[in-house]
Design a protein that fits this description.
Elements (H helix, E strand, L loop, with lengths): L5 E3 L6 E3 L5 E5 L2 E5 L2 H9 L1 H6 L13
Antiparallel strand pairs: 1-2, 3-4
Bound molecules: zinc ion.
Length: 65
């Protein structure tokens, strides 16, 4: 079985794999994965902000890391 799971980093819009994600956080019983600790930090500060605009529109560029 392949354990690879593509998740989306809601902060920067990057695809991250659950197995290799550099950051993760739990919010309301759901686990979210991030490309790095910076994105995790940003999410932790304001999760609702990122959840509300998670419709799959990546920002232009990857400004976090
Ligand atoms: Zn990121």
């Amino acid at each position: 079985m392949n354990n690879t799971m593509a998740m989306k980093d809601l902060v920067c819009g990057m695809d991250v794999e659950a197995a290799t994600a550099a950051g993760r956080t739990e919010y309301k019983g759901q686990t979210y994965y991030f490309c790095g600790p910076k994105c995790k930090e940003k999410f932790d500060l304001n999760p609702e902000h990122y959840l509300s605009k998670s419709a799959g529109t990546p920002k232009s560029g990857h400004g976090c890391c």
